[in-house]
Amino acid sequence: MITNLCFHGIGTIVHERESGESRYWVTEDCFLRILDEVRESPQVRLSFDDGNRSDVSIAFPALRERELRASFFALAGRLDDPASLSSSDLRDLRSAGMAIGSHGWTHVPWRGLGEEEARRELVDARTALAEASGGEIDDVALPLGRYDRQLLGRLARVGYRTVYTSDRLPARSSAWIQARYSVTANDTVESIRSVITHRPGVRDVRNLLASRVKRIR
Ligand SMILES: [Zn+2]
């Protein structure tokens, strides 16, 4: 089993786009300590959602320094806005061996989308990000972690190679659905260490059941 860690923003958030967003921002110091903790752990994979500028201003150089790779899930609708990644950032990340994935267009939950919205979020966003980053987009991360059976069916039909959730569980390395742990402002290097070393507890059983329900509901 592997552990997928997901970051959203590093450093100080300038303004929240969504209420409660700052809960998912971690200090630079905490971020660097986590990277140092996981740098020798091949069973830990790293991803970054939302395409915030801290992905390139802080995370990218820190990853390169430690010869780590990560996946960056950007939003097509935020490309080139001042607080977000630009097309040339995506190209720089890609040419340094980072993976670029889609997080959709507008950062809305994908459950129960109408046909038109689904096309924009699942198909058009992918096309726009592929163009912007100069390469294929194979992977997708679900905005706000929400999903159900209908959405998984749509993602399968559109042909995504891997679907990243936020179900706070370990994952099988080759599974189509990859659960991830979102790192929050309350995390410390110690709390992340216990996630990685993984002693299954009550919370895991609860998360596993919740994840099963989402797949079949
Ligand atoms: Zn997000």
TrEMBL record:
What Gene Ontology molecular-function terms does this entry list? hydrolase activity, acting on carbon-nitrogen (but not peptide) bonds
- SUPFAM superfamilies reported for this sequence: Glycoside hydrolase/deacetylase
- Matches recorded under InterPro entries: Glyco_hydro/deAcase_b/a-brl, NODB_dom, Polysacch_Deacetylase
The record, for Pfam families, names: Polysacc_deac_1 (PF01522)
Keywords attached to this entry: Signal
Alphabetical GO CC annotations of the entry are:
extracellular region
Report the record's Gene Ontology biological process terms: carbohydrate metabolic process
**Broad class of the protein's primary localization:** secreted
Subcellular location per UniProt equals: Secreted
Q: From the Swiss-Prot or TrEMBL record, give the protein name.
A: Polysaccharide deacetylase family protein
Show the taxonomic lineage.
Bacteria, Bacillati, Actinomycetota, Actinomycetes, Micrococcales
